[in-house]
């Protein structure tokens, strides 16, 4: 295959790295997935990416001169001058990824662009996914945790401290007795992420078990509801809710109410043209989105109640699309 | 006085209209305040502004040719194409202010700019006030209600429905038994604005009075704490708190906690470089700001905990500065 110019969009996750080769017009030509080697403080990650890029160029009979550049999405905050400020999942401290990567590839560092992974996924959905008819959007990914990326006027917003779009840490949950990994109490993530929903279900079980042990009424049995070991994933919780369990229902509805409240907060701050929801938990589909839409209408400020809440459409590829868009925009 | 070019920055409030004449470099040369005539659906307002502009031009021996333009801040939402979509306080329905004003003044409509009043105040503070060292900021005005304006990369953000920056309607208050004027329950404004604080104090008094009437204990007296008629303004509530009253303290601390929580929400969404707080209630000064800062540090996501919370510095003139900036930016 021959072509004039190409660019890479690379999504670096804690487990795998997705490398996409794109044509100038943004068509995904080839995708490779390699493992993320987090050993030795993640010091092999950029070398592995270099090797993958060179391999793909070779396979496609492309020259380094044909390379418009490479965009990389990383799971951590990125300053406006492309310095990565700690990626705990990769083992990285403060790292100038543009400089390191350009030295490894022997190409000018201007050809390397870096962004936060959630911002890149947001940009991907804006460009080629569910957001392609909108100018501004908030993308939310509901997985193990909750990530988010904000697009305004077609550009990802990093924020003064790289924390824009971090709606997993909105301090809006009031009845929590658990700390978030960030050290605060009350983060959205603690009730609305996959991990949060499982923890929430376990907390109810613990509380009820303890209550019955402490003060069992004559007509009460020892707690014999759903068991913690049967609730290991958010799917288990959704299945429980679908089976009619009060525990499952409570945890799922709480998730939907708080997610809706979070979107209502976002609408009061930036009033985006649409919301896009992706990530593993969003795989529950339209039923879940409909519950969130229902609560959103009761919680949002009236000018914004019609703002569409859409499912993401690029799945795990969104990050690659966004990362390559950064490069193509700059070129 | 002779000068080459000048522009007007006009802040239209529900009671008065502030008209400022500015030089090209943004110096306020002259300020006139005229009453807002809301009768006849506010149909005289733009005529009154025209008369005021012509009068000032005449006084300053300026010609209409010397006029760069006029910027107007209005208390309502403004679309990106300068249509005002209802200003309840002025009596206006949907109105194309640029067209009407340019016809009245007989100048091209491109010379008339319109913005939301809180956005204009935000832009004013960004340009000439406390925000002049920052690129992005969230401005909050705490008065009868709570208004807000968001500046990103030096530009006011309107939002898809004109609702960006409307943090008075963040749905974050969970223990409210009152509706907001917007029809929702749980708006920040209901506990953190001047009106909200007074209503909150009155609600406590009502509840306690009713409780004692219903079930007075032998050692209890009829309610004889602070009286509703003595708590007519937020200053009364602040005075009560300063005098050591539990009621005053509770209402003031609640206001500070929820305001801090609102700022923490804003930080998770757009992560601005600073917050600027203005409006009548902010006139309580550094003590109040210090309480808000204290709670902000416990509630904000860690990357943003150092974000400065600053007092506004332009007072009631902020809106005029912002409105004229719109014109000067466009010229």
Explain the overall architecture.
The structure is a homodimer of 331-residue chains. With 331 residues, chain A is α/β, with parallel strands linked by helices. Chain A folds into two domains: 6-129 and 316-330, Nucleotidyltransferase, domain 5 (2-Layer Sandwich); 137-218 and 220-313, ATPase, nucleotide binding domain (Nucleotidyltransferase, domain 5, 2-Layer Sandwich). Helix content of chain A is 38%, strand content 21%. The first copy, chain A, has helices at residues 39-42, 45-59, 97-105, 117-128, 189-192, 194-214, 234-242, 246-269, 286-299, 318-330; strands spanning 6-12, 16-23, 28-35, 67-74, 77-78, 83-87, 92-96, 112-116, 137-142, 146-152, 155-156, 274-278, 309-311. In chain A, the strands form three sheets. Chain A has a five-stranded mixed beta sheet. In chain A, helix 6 (194-214) crosses helix 7. The first copy, chain A, is elongated, with a radius of gyration of 22 Å. The two termini of chain A are 23 Å apart. Chain A binds chain B through residues 77, 136, 138, 150, 152, 157-167, 169-172, 174, 182-184, 186-187, 261, 264-273, 298-304, 307, and chain B through 77, 136, 138, 150, 152, 157-167, 169-172, 174, 182-184, 186, 261, 264-273, 298-304, 307.
């Amino acid at each position: 295959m021959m072509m004039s110019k190409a660019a890479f969009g690379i999504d670096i996750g804690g487990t795998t790295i997705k490398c996409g080769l794109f044509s100038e017009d943004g068509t995904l030509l080839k995708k490779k997935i390699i493992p993320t080697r987090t050993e030795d403080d993640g010091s092999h990650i950029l070398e592995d990416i270099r090797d993958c890029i060179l391999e793909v160029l070779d396979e496609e009979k492309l020259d380094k001169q044909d390379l418009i550049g490479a965009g990389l999405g990383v799971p951590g905050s990125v300053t406006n001058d492309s310095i990565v400020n700690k990626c705990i999942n990769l083992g990285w401290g403060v790292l100038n990824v543009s400089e390191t990567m350009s030295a490894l590839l022997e190409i000018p560092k201007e050809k390397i662009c870096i962004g936060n992974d959630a911002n890149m996924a947001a940009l991907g959905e804006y460009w080629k996914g569910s957001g392609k008819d909108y100018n501004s959007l908030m993308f939310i990914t509901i997985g193990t945790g909750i990530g988010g990326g904000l697009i305004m006027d077609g550009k990802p917003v990093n924020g003064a401290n790289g924390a824009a779009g971090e709606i997993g840490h909105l301090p809006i949950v009031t009845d929590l007795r658990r700390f978030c990994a960030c050290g605060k109490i009350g983060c959205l993530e603690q009730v609305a992420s996959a991990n949060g929903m499982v923890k929430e279900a376990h907390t109810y079980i613990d509380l009820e078990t303890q209550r019955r042990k402490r003060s069992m009424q004559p007509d009460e049995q020892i707690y014999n509801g759903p068991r913690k070991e049967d609730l290991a994933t958010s799917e288990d919780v959704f299945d429980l809710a679908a089976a009619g369990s009060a525990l499952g229902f409570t945890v799922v509805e709480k998730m939907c109410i708080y997610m809706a409240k979070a979107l209502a907060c976002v609408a009061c701050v930036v009033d985006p043209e649409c919301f896009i929801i992706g990530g593993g938990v969003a795989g529950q589909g339209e039923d879940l989105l409909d519950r969130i839409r229902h609560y959103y209408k009761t919680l949002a400020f009236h000018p914004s109640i019609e703002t569409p809440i859409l499912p993401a459409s690029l799945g795990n590829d969104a990050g690659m699309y966004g990362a390559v868009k950064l490069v193509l925009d700059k070129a």
